[in-house]
Amino acid sequence: MQRPSRVASFRLAVAGACLFLVAVAPAVAWADPQGPTARDRQIAQIVASLLRRDHLSKHALDEEIASRCVRQFIKMLDPMKVYFYQSDVDAFMARQREVIEVKKGDVGLAYSIFQTFLRRVDERVRLVDEFLAMRHDFTVDEEMIVDRDAAQFPRNEAEARERWRKRIKYDLLVLKADRLEKDRQQARKAETSGQKPAEEPVSAEEETKEWLDRLKRRYHNFARRMHQTDNDELLEMYLTALSSSFDPHSSYMSADTVNNFLIQMRLNLEGIGAALQSVDGYTVVNKLIPGGPAERDGRLKVEDKIIGVGQGKDGPIEDVVDMKLSDVVKLIRGPKGTVVRLEIMRGRSKERKIIELTRAAVELKDSEARSKVFEAGRRPDGRPYKIGVIDLPSFYMDMDAARAGVPNFKSTTRDVRRILEDFNHQGVDALVLDLRRNGGGSLQEAISLTGLFIDEGPIVQVKDADGRVHPYPDVESGMAWKGPMVVLISKFSASASEILAGAIQDYGRGLIVGDYATHGKGTVQSLRDLGEELFRLPNLAKLGALKITMQQFYRPDGDSTQKRGVLADIVWPSITSHLADISEADLDYALPFDQVPPQEHQRFGYVNKGLVARLQQLSSARVEASEEFQRIKRNIARYEEQKKKKFVTLNEQKFLAERAELNADREEEKQLEELQEGATTEIKRDHYINEALAITVDYLQLAFQGGPPAQAVQAQRQAQN
Asked: Are residues 229 and 352 in the same domain?
């Protein structure tokens, strides 16, 4: 949906959505700033102007925002408070008024803070080398702080040394615990398969040397990457610190980030179809995309290290060890039909081989709607119910194609409509729509998709910065699905997911099942083309874009989902419901909850309090009798205890015992994962899906027992009319 203005700006409803970039960026992966350019100052001025003029909060760019910005920038650079001294932070905060000068294009403070950061990184790397060269006593009863909120920046060099001595000791313990767990897994796999373990055992001395080398490489590579930070990356970070000081979902996107964002929204790219990550200076294959060139070719494997990239059949191989991940991705991506050659290393072997691949258009199938029909329960005539499950990871839409007027552009609604048509053809009795990992996406798609399940009426209300409220009605004619439906949610279900779940609940159209509540993001972002703002011409790729919160959305009944989310009708035990610092209410500077007047709309009456109470009772009884759910409850209880801990022991015996205890209760889970390996694009029938199917069967039998579900739905609708 385009805004009715001179700028091409798409309304988004995105919260915590992971961008599948064909490269999973490391926690920090920036590159070497040379000082702000005229272009940087130009971008900063536009961003500051848009935030002051168009942000929903109407907050001035004042000292409060400036203070927030500096704190956000420091947190981005040093979240664990191990690099900066407290005196550094005090000096930065004393200069916070300089942030206000962004209005004039002044971003000098960002460079000053970052140069200090680089000096501290170099100092800490020297400490790493020193502590890796010394022998550590792992029998001492001492602890390391792991609660970043409780941690303080070191006040002097002595405190910094002590923090880093413990950090290296902790890193070594983690590597040892990980190795022991990997050995256990391989032994179990070998026992069940009758084959030898994949890796030959190495001596303790060799292993220790490998761990020391790995940690040294990790920290040196981190320092190298920091010194490679370029202007675009530093500017993106600083302007995002500024924009996220207005609210957590506003951010500045560099040209590269915009390109990756659009790839995620259209679910296709041109390349080899491999997800990559940076591990200790190596570019490592994390995943092969089903149907992509690499997966079809078969020679490139998960965990392969890419150490060189060559263009064409005979271009020189460029060494990519210690290269920034984003730069490696740029070398590997390219137009379809062109050739790229990868030099790889596999496992512990130092043997190198060259793999030649032809780039192609790659569809990100893992991120599009997928479906499966399951049989569960029994109808009155003894036949099993057919229940169609749709897993929807995001609300995607090919923005470029939509803006260009392409009639059949890639969209969530089109894909789901096709699935529903197939369900109707198969005689499916009920629908389960799984939004548990759906972090949002296109507002337009949320509205049109919801319209597949209602005939007419408001789906969402949107309020702009001037307080004007606009209802957005169903734009899809008729109902693509008239039968019973269940919507699965989690704390990760955000924004566009909450629009759909909220409308289904307000209309009484179906059951909401899952975590206690969704994420709680009730704001709408627009993607503003900075090139267009400046030149009045499409120029997105050169100046980047500002994702800015301009509106807040409300359910048909008038409640915002902001900070509260959509409450489930039926709640089941889930670790995601207990995770800390991931809901909207946990985020810095989240906008407040409020309400608008309700809109008139139809009430289907497919859900009522008595029905919900009975369904919850039946579900709770199954959960109590389920070994899988009881294990989950134990894990939740253990996690809640872990959350309270601000320190971790550095005594080897105690540390390994705690890790073993945490791993023990996951043995059955791991075995199940191993049985299901390879089913990357198919919906897995785990205990959550089984319980969702059981709830759906109960729902069919209790609410629609007057006849086949489709007939019962039609009868109820006619009775309401």
From this structure: no
